[in-house]
Amino acid sequence: MTEDPEVVTRRIAGEAIERDDPTGWFENLYAAAADGEAVVPWDRGTAHQLLADWIAEAEPDGTGKTAVIVGAGTGWDAELIVDRGYDTTAFDISPSAIETAHRNHPASKAHYVVADLLNPPADWHQAFDLVVEIYTVQALPIPLQPAAVTHVSDLVAPGGTLLVIAAARPDDQPDTTLQGPPWPLTRATIRSFTTPDLHLIQLDQAPSPTDPTLLRWRAEYLRD
Question: Which residue ranges does UniProt annotate as crossing the membrane (predicted)?
């Protein structure tokens, strides 16, 4: 019987964390997937449904604007944003993920690059009109999440929009009860993306499109 991809992912992540390399497991997982030895649980060969829903509702026009996809994975979310006309940068800490994105989308107009959310390029400071963060912060151990949240928020340009999609958990659920990844986000963590000039303008919590027993946040923020 094939092993559950989520179990495999947690094992790979646990091994990296034990080596004091809490972000190294992304490359380990994507490299194993490229070799046919693992499956990336969140890679379903299409853009995330909640992102697609937001696009359908907001109908953003990316003409003359920039966008960045945090944790690009194999590129499906980036391709949806490119199709809206944005000059799109999509980054991942995993070189294997970026290689797979290039392979999946050989004619793409997106700029797929290797970069670390916890140490992003300096010229990305408030550089993007649209920032899309799906499942990346929650894939980091809880002690790393505040820094990741700060770096995500810092990407948003004046007048720009941030869209965050993440697994949800109650604020009173202790961290010690979580066996991640993922480490779902509390309402307090979702609100922590805000800054004095980056405001939460819409927050929805709804069942996951793929598993109604799980709840997902969809949060939209706007910078003055």
Answer: none
Task: Round to whole Å and give the CA distance between 29 and 104.
Answer: 17
State the helix-helix crossing angle for 5-18 and 24-34, rounded to 10 degrees.
140
What is the distance between the alpha carbons of residues 87 and 67, in angstroms, rounded to a whole number? Answer: 6
Compute the distance between CA of residue 104 and CA of residue 44 in angstroms, rounded to an integer.
Answer: 13
Q: Which amino acid is at 168?
A: A
**Residue 91 per-residue DSSP state:** E
pLDDT of residue 186: 96
In 31-85, DSSP assigns E strands to: 66-70
* Cα–Cα distance, 78 to 91 (Å, whole number): 9
User: Which residues partner with 90 through β-bridges?
Assistant: 69, 112
Residues in the chain with pLDDT values less than 70: 1-2
Predicted structure pTM score: 0.94
pLDDT at position 6:
80
For residue 55, how many C-alpha atoms fall within 13 Å in the half-sphere facing its CB?
Answer: 20
**Strand (E) or helix (H) holding 222:** strand 215-223
> How many residues belong to the chain?
224
Phi-psi category of residue 26: left, alpha or beta, with phi > 0 → left and psi -120 to 50 → alpha: alpha
CA distance 149 to 193: 6
* Residue 168: strand, helix, or coil: strand
Q: Residue 2 has what pLDDT?
A: 61
